[in-house]
Amino acid sequence: MAENSNNKRRDFLQLSTVTIGAVGTAAFIWPFLKSMNPAEDTIALGTTEVDVSQIEEGQSITVKWRGKPVFIRKRTKDEIDEAKTVNMSDLKDPEEDVDRVKKDEWLVLVGVCTHLGCVPLGQKLTDSKGEYNGWYCPCHGSHYDTSGRIRKGPAPENLAVPPYSFLNDTTIKIG
Amino acid sequence: MSGNSEPRKYKNPVLNWIEFRLPIISYFEKEYGDYPMPKNCNYFWSFGALATITLVTMIVSGIFLAMNYTPHTEMAFDSVERIMRDVNYGWLLRYIHSNGAAFFFIIVYIHIVRGMYYGSYKYPRELNWILGVFIYLLMMATSFLGYTLPWGQMSYWGATVITNLFSAIPFIGEGLKTWLLGDYTVGNATLNRFFALHYVLPFVIFGVVGLHVAAVHVHGSNNPAGIDIRSKNDTVNFFPYMLIKDTIAVCVFGVLISAVIFFGPNLMAEVDNYIPADPLVTPAHIVPNWYLAPFYAILRAVPDKLGGVALMFGAIAILFVLPWLDTSKVRSCNFRPMYKWFMMLFFVNFFVLGYVGMLPAEGLYLIIARVGLVYYFGFFLIITPFVGWIEKPKTLPASISDVYLGGGKESPLPASQKEIH
Predict the structure, then answer these.
(1) Which terminus, N or C, of chain A has the lesser number of Cβ atoms within 10 Å?
(2) How confident is the model at residue B154 (pLDDT cuts 50, 70, 90)?
(3) The domain B34-420 is classified under which CATH number: 1.10.3720.10, 3.40.50.300, 1.20.810.10, 2.40.50.870?
């Protein structure tokens, strides 16, 4: 019987040594892995203020926010109607137009295709706007509508809407 | 008790002194001098040596390029231009390195084709094959990281597209992508770590190549007949026979790569990469390096983000299990009348996938890519196991020496029932 209890002691010691070793190794690896995440200065949320008084109806501008392009578009009456009358069942990522804008004529989007991160075309007047009159990503052929919603192609989600607010009628603060 | 217990193996006392303490001299003698090579090996068997030499060339030219390169988003592009214009022979170092990468893939693809056609991946060399696929994976990672460093438009957008592949993974994808980039977009943190990893991975490859070579030397090299070595008559020593043969191969290779380095250094480069990276403008047409294009074609052939990414990685992962998908015990396709043609078609199909992978994913190209995708997976999952069961292989020669006496009648037994040991 003494031998048996001795064996149990051995098992216990072995198991606890291995466990402590494994936990210790994992704890040691953590700072290394964590160091690869964005640094504090990168996280520090940048804000961008944009003067939109010069933008005419039907025009778009691109500004840079946190290293990404942000599209600001003053939509025409037709574009707004088009965005509002879409049947929700036709959408891959259903979202009402009213949930994506603060003022009907101003559409603010992160200009990064939700497929693999290219910048879609459609900002310049000469650009292809795709089959739904919004934006078209040339990399892998995703089509977005006048509300920046994905309509056709491999992208899984609508173009993201960044956090923004109107400081006054002609100034938008992004971030 | 004097020192005469040390055995005297070599005439040179220094060699004896080393050999007694570290038997490295006899190791090299055994593995690279007396190592028996099947005497029917053709020039396809020189590509392993070519690949090793290219790897060393890449490491050396890379180290010297790193002495003049600056991994910072503001300075990377200009530092590469400075290498091209101001650094002594910088243009040569860079063209050796950039074209060397392309030729490294050409060599390795031929090496893989050799292994597949002659069945080198089969028993008892499965682990050898797995190590090889692992090297191939490491090479793809390394070349992708290196392509980012010049910080041109293709560098930036290639890095963006490839790192975004990880965001397709459910739940952890976005977090994983941010962790890989060290930022919310491809930025300075990304460039820094890509440089660090691009510097270290080739040494990892070098280590795995060591294992790959050690593993093949355990059971000896395969040969075009795909049969085992039976006697000393079947082989020649590596030194001098294979060394001389490999040297000729290296000379021919040197002529070819020099022709490209000196007369067409940008033949395999994308012009857009001579435009500095611009995070606000995506090039109209993002093209991967040609040697990664077949997998890019697979990615784009699937109209679903996660599905495309899964199949693309699956296309590489499936290579690992090829030794277990193949049910035939006959190694060489020379003796497999059916599988031979499916194999040839597989190579053509891979080439076609690469071709459409560099063209826009629309219209006919998209259809070709989808057909190619189906054949790629169909070859591994359906054709390879089934043909092994139904095919009747030709009669194998009794020994490697017999290869030179002719042979090749139809065998009455299907491949899976044939004994080759």
Answers:
(1) N
(2) very high
(3) 1.20.810.10
